[in-house]
Amino acid sequence: MDCDSIELVPYLPYILQDFHEVGSHAESLLRVINELKPDRKINVLDLGCGKGAVLCTIAEKIDSTCLGIDAIEPFIQYANKYKNQRNIKNCDFVVGDIRNLQDIKSSYDFIIMGSIGPIFESYTIAMESLKKILQDDGYILLDDGYMENGKKHAVTLEKEELFVQINKAGMYIEREYTGKDICLADEFEGQLDKIKVRCNELIEKYPEGEILFRKYIEKQEVEYSALENEITCSTMVIRKLA
Ligand SMILES: C[S@@+](CC[C@H](N)C(=O)[O-])C[C@H]1O[C@@H](n2cnc3c(N)ncnc32)[C@H](O)[C@@H]1O
Q: What is the C-alpha to C-alpha distance for residues 2 and 219, in angstroms, rounded to an integer?
């Protein structure tokens, strides 16, 4: 759901209305947390939680207290409605900018960054900010992607550069999950079709916005193609250096 045009943001809830998961695969992240989690109730923070699909799955299946934050209000409204429909009590969703986390006083066992892209200025800056609210034995799950070393992409970093930026913040990648386990590439085509249908509806409704919506379609085509052919999708398990 990459989007770098601020004008498009108000239309994203419409464009993505057919999606419950708007980024990461909930069941995959659930599996990763189940593998890593200590044998006690855990605290989970989901940054850029979208419509809450990942966090609701975790909250339902794991003994936990969960908080999801996203900047798009209709996504948070959807997440709250969905959790209420499923009677999920251990999960809160709030609207907020995840680059400003100074009001958060809790300390988390897991912090999820699921398909949020390069929101922070760098991964060093992101990790330095998150370190303060991560338990010493906690995990950051960065579900994203990188280019193999030597290959360039407009926004996606090369693997080595990504790892270096994380190390600079006194963190390291303990392990990563790649391939079919976390990346459902066979769903990409259907997802792109749904996005195109909704953008074309918007073009009919708002002909003055045609260029904006067409550009979004083009960008999505490029991004999905990169995800399929160039980018290595990875769930990186990040911890504090001792
Ligand atoms: C591709 S979606 C992923 C959503 C969710 N993590 C998932 O995997 O289903 C990216 C999300 O990041 C959110 N986002 C982008 N910039 C943000 C910011 N500065 N603060 C909070 N949320 C942000 C967007 O609103 C969007 O919901």
A: 8
Dihedral over Cα of 223, 228, 231, 232: its sign? positive
CA angle 74–75–79, rounded 5-degree value:
115
Q: Is residue 193 part of a domain?
A: no
| Structural domain that includes position 125 | 26-183+232-240
Instruction: Please report the pLDDT score of residue 17 as a whole number.
Output: 96
Q: Is 24 in the pocket of ligand 1 (CB under 6 A)?
A: yes
**Residue 176's beta-bridge partner residues?**
236
| Residues 108-136, mean pLDDT to the nearest whole number | 95
Considering the domain boundaries, does residue 36 fall inside one?
yes
**For residue 157, what is the domain's CATH number?**
3.40.50.150
> Is residue 60 assigned to a domain?
yes
Q: Is the CB of 116 under 6 A from ligand 1?
A: yes
- Residue 23 Cα to ligand 1 middle (Å): 8
Q: Is 52 in the pocket of ligand 1 (CB under 6 A)?
A: no
pTM, full prediction: 0.94
In the three-class reduction of DSSP (H, G, I as helix; E, B as strand; rest coil), residue 9 is classed as helix
Tokens for 122? 């760098």
Q: How many domains in the chain?
A: 1
Asked whether residue 13 is assigned to any structural domain, the reply reads no
